[in-house]
Design goal:
alpha+beta; five-stranded mixed β-sheet; disordered N terminus
């Protein structure tokens, strides 16, 4: 997955629907495509300095990116819906999927609802987020109906210009891998905060050296890993196991299972899909899939290993602190105590 970001040279001032630039001594825009590695760290793939952000420069930039990443490869792009990028991306990467950053969409909706009471705006933004995260079309339309009921005309007008398959999980045909925001691009911008004030040639060379050192440092770190998968992904897998502990799994044969959760979900291990849609969206086993991957024999709780203690075993129960002993009357000596006829040692 690649995330597009843009930065100014030297600074950026964010606005609601656009990025405005402060003109300094060294002018220009820095275009960048940033991906993520297996351990969820950001990885700059391609960057360039251009005079302005327009369709021609984006086309030139994407053509160079296509030499690194094959256009036939299944790739997902996440961007802030820049008009030039929206027009050019399908031409250079016709097989790629383009997702819009949910944060920027929320900010655009906030601006679109100007003049409305703040509490109602916040509620509409929350409902809009629920629509975006909805994993199935049924849940999506339930959230969408609730959203339109609150302020149907203005919200519906806003959504008319934004196709569902670019921002809704339920309709998105690619894999977003859980990336709803373009945070990776912002991480790259923060990473080159000091370098972006340099002259253009010095800027490019400084970023190149910084990236080279970053790759070398990560290679050293990877050599110390002992697991089969990257640590952060292994942690996500363990979280899925822990979430699925209360659920019961029934096998239907041919790698198909039913997970009795709320609601019940069907999982096909061989096709890597679940009826909830989360596995397909994230490209990583969800909690339902993790539950089906657990071997049934491994879930049997065995007794703990015990070691025989030295000395004669104690035959009397150890009483709790403060526990009162029941007083009984011995039928042999007729005295009140904690013994009976069998254990009586009184002389007669």
């Amino acid at each position: 997955m690649w995330v597009f970001g843009r930065n100014t040279h030297p600074t950026v001032v964010p606005d609601v629907e656009k990025k405005s630039f402060k003109q300094g001594r060294f002018r220009g825009n820095l275009l960048a495509a940033t991906g993520k590695d297996g351990n969820q760290g950001f990885f700059p793939v391609c960057f360039a300095v251009v005079g302005s952000e327009n369709q021609d420069n984006w086309h030139w930039f994407l053509e160079h990116l296509s030499r690194i990443v094959s256009p036939e490869r299944n790739v997902t792009f996440v961007s802030n819906r820049n008009l030039g990028l929206v027009e050019v991306l399908p031409k250079v990467f016709p097989m790629a999927f383009h997702a819009y950053c949910l944060y920027h969409l929320k900010m655009n909706l906030w601006h679109h609802l100007r003049g409305m009471f703040r509490r109602l705006k916040e509620k509409l933004i929350t409902l809009f987020g629920k629509c975006a995260y909805a994993p199935t079309e049924k849940i999506f339309h339930q959230c969408l109906v609730e959203l339109k009921i609150e302020d149907g005309l203005r919200v519906e007008k806003f959504l008319d210009d934004i196709p569902y398959d670019h921002w809704s999980n339920a309709y998105f045909r690619g894999q977003r891998f859980g990336e709803m925001w373009s945070n990776v691009a912002e991480s790259f911008n923060s990473w080159i905060r000091e370098e972006r004030h340099l002259p253009i040639i010095k800027l490019i060379d400084s970023v190149r050296i910084k990236l080279m050192r970053k790759i070398a440092k990560r290679r050293e770190l990877v050599n110390k890993w002992n697991g089969l998968i990257c640590p952060k992904m292994e942690s996500k897998l363990h979280d899925g196991f822990n979430t699925s502990r209360p659920w019961i799994v029934s096998s239907s044969g041919n790698d198909v299972y039913e997970v009795h959760s709320h609601p019940s979900i069907s999982v096909d291990i061989s096709k890597r899909i679940c009826s909830y849609g989360e596995w397909q969206l994230k490209g990583f086993p969800c909690a339902h899939a993790a539950d089906c991957n657990v071997d049934g024999d491994s879930e049997v709780v065995l007794p703990p290993l015990s070691k025989k203690q030295p000395g004669r075993p104690n035959k009397k129960r150890i009483r709790s602190n403060g526990e009162k002993m029941r007083q009984i009357t011995c039928s042999r000596c007729e005295k009140i105590g904690n013994h009976n006829k069998k254990s009586c040692k009184e002389a007669l």
